[in-house]
Amino acid sequence: MCQCYREAADQLALGIHTASVDEKTGIQALERIAATKLMKAKQEERREFEYQRHGTLCLTANLEVATGKVLGPTLEATRTEADFAGHIARTVATDAEAGWIFVADNLTTHVSETLVRYVAKECGIGDDLGVKGKRGILKSVPTRRKFLEDKSHRIRFVYVPKHTSWLNQIEIWFSILVRRVIRRGNFTSVKDLRDKILAFIAYFNETLAKPFKWTYTGRPLNV
Fold first, then answer.
1. Would the pLDDT of 45 be above 90?
2. CATH number of the domain located at residue range(s) 2-29+51-207 in this protein
3. So what's the pLDDT on residue 220?
4. What are the sequence ranges of the domains in the chain?
5. 3-class secondary-structure state, position 123
6. Alpha-carbon distance 209 to 111, whole Å?
């Protein structure tokens, strides 16, 4: 996986995108019941601690490793396997003829039947995929994962080892989103939350995006 990050720029030059993908669930649209008092001389900013809840959103986003830009964000109320496969399909559609490598964690929706069927269709694989829970590629999580990791496919996945979601670069960007937008935000509705997240993504891509300097080599860290 670390090698995948190191090779991302060279891969992009060959027309292959490397995108770190994951979901950030349960983003709350919280509205403070009183206006925030802005910082002034000898007084820090003061925020109302009581709030109203207006609902939640799930953000699924891709961080292109070679450029540091956020690609094809999806904001929905749920995160089903169909939602994730649809997100991948919309992402690939932004450069439909290119190759795509997605770095993901081990959530079961990331190795779903829906995703396998989509990848098979896009890669022109007409083989019998089998039956989920019974036989063939669709039989189990390991068989589906093996198919999705196949390096011969134009669209493939690289999965981080178990218990190492921190290796997924999109998690770094999610922490930026929390600090810049969500933690101190005031949102009057779910639509307002959606609009402000999308506005920040556009701003980030235009002014702040750059590749993360990845120094971890994959060797076990000393305890």
1. no
2. 3.30.420.10
3. 65
4. 2-29+51-207
5. coil
6. 29
